[in-house]
Amino acid sequence: MKQVYSEIIQFRGSHYDFGYMQGEKLIDSFAIKNRENQWKVRKPRFTIDVGEVKHAILRFAPGIWDELLGLQEALKWPMERVLREFGGYRLDYVRSGCSILTGDYYLIRNYDYHPKTYEGRYVFFQPTDQGYAMVGPSQRVTGRMDGMNEHGLAIGYNFMHRKNPGNGFICCMIGRIILESCASVEEAVVMLKEIPHRHSFSYVVYDRSGETFIVEASPRRVKVRKATACTNHFEIMKHENRNHLEDSKRRLDILVEHGSGIKDAFEAFRLLNSSEKGVFSNLYSSWAGTIHTSAYLPRDMKAWFTLGSDSDPIQFDFSLWLMGENIEAEKITGEIDTELPFLHMDPGADWFRK
After folding, report:
1. What is the C-alpha to C-alpha distance for residues 57 and 5, in angstroms, rounded to an integer?
2. Furthest-apart CA atoms within the chain: distance in Å
3. Which of 54, 286, 282 has the alpha carbon at shortest distance from 159?
4. Which alpha helices (DSSP H) does the chain contain, by range?
5. What is the pLDDT along the chain (354 residues), one digit of tens a residue?
6. How is 306-346 classified by DSSP, letter by letter?
7. What is the C-alpha to C-alpha distance for residues 158 and 111, in angstroms, rounded to an integer?
8. 289 contacts 282 by C-beta, under 8 angstroms
């Protein structure tokens, strides 16, 4: 078992200042050093066009561009490098797992991925210039793996495939843009239809109405359906699915079978976080191990989070934080059954060796 942590980051202020603060924290970090080594092995197969990325971001969430400018100022990098690391546009995304269940005013999500990509940042951000306040774990600093905003809109996403990528945003930036700009599931669905998608993912959106929409999105088309459970295959656009779906369908069957009988959010959390119920995964070296379990309760404006399996979640009252009450803890800690290095806390979290 490996002791791991996520740093709790809290910020109230402008997007630019938020970016600058994050850049200062990232200088000389393991995350930056490991990412530099990762790029030595996985060269980008395209050139970053600063004007193209700026235009795409300004169309949907202009505050994020200011955040990128703040990061650039603090890190003293060319904008091309800032966008390669944090821009979330036209970048590549490798395979992953993930399972999501919604129910009586909750969204529970297992984030399944490789430890060498995990940056260990759980972020509270309340902008004073534009956009909505949000809470959730970050990915590529500006993106969000999952989260909830001040209106009680929650989102998570599930990987489908990387075939035939398009010129668009990757999943974590899409998650951030939705939280930044949308107040309801209806607004989120509209934006997910408009936004350009780099890869194929399902986006699960849920809010205080208790309504769940699953948006099946690829670079070619977007379809919307209603359901309360989602794993790693499309139900409408089946022609877009990968060939090997056994594990995805197995996890979905567990969620559907047990989901209807669940009494409350805590029981749902247990279903996904337990190492014995079949949804939590230890396949870390295969890019599909569960690193964290998140929960969002829009009616109560609570956010739950845990690292690893079989743990009671840390519970945050987002409504109190929005009113100015800071979180006292600085880190969330947990244990994960792997010896693989983590991007944010270990040297050698690169692709030179497994």
Report:
1. 31
2. 54
3. 286
4. 15-26, 30-41, 50-60, 62-75, 79-86, 171-181, 185-194, 246-259, 265-273, 318-322
5. 999 999 999 999 999 999 999 999 999 999 999 999 988 876 666 678 999 999 999 999 999 999 999 999 999 999 999 999 999 998 876 667 899 999 999 999 999 999 999 999 999 999 999 999 999 999 999 999 999 999 999 999 999 887 889 999 999 999 999 999 999 999 999 999 999 999 999 999 999 999 999 999 999 999 999 999 999 999 999 999 988 899 999 999 999 999 889 999 999 999 999 999 999 999 999 889 999 999 999 999 999 999 999 999 999 999 999 999 999 999 999 999 999 999 999 999 988 754
6. EESSS-PPEEEEHHHHHTT-----SEEEEEES--PPPTTT-
7. 9
8. yes
Report the SS3 class of residue 86.
helix
Cα distances (Å, whole numbers) of residue 189 to 153, 199, 229, 324: 12, 17, 17, 31
Computed on alpha carbons and rounded to an integer, the radius of gyration of the chain in Å comes to 18
**Domains present along the chain, CATH in parentheses:** 2-10+97-336 (3.60.60.10)
Shortest CA distance to 303 belongs to which of 182, 115, 122? 122
Which of 127, 171, 126 lies closest to 145 in space, CA to CA? 171
Distance CA 174, CA 143 (A): 8
| The pair of three-digit structure tokens given for residue 44, joined into one six-digit string | 């980008």
For residues 245 and 134, what is the distance between their CA atoms, to the nearest angstrom? 33
Any idea what the Cα angle at residue 91 is, between residues 86 and 96, rounded to 5°? 100
In whole angstroms, what is the distance from residue 35 CA to residue 26 CA?
A: 11
Q: Fill in the DSSP letter of residue 89.
A: B
Q: Answer whether 134's CB lies under 8 Å from 177's CB.
A: no
Using a 10 angstrom Cβ sphere, with 0-12 exposed, 13-18 middle and 19 or more buried, the burial of residue 155 is buried
Question: What burial letters (b/e) apply to 215-244, b meaning 16+ CB within 10 Å?
Answer: bbbbbeebbeeebbbbbbbbeebeebbbee
Taking the model in full, what pTM does it have?
0.96
Per-residue three-class SS string for 177-236: HHHHHCCCHHHHHHHHHHCCECCEEEEEEECCCCCEEEEEECCCCEEEECCCEECCCCCC
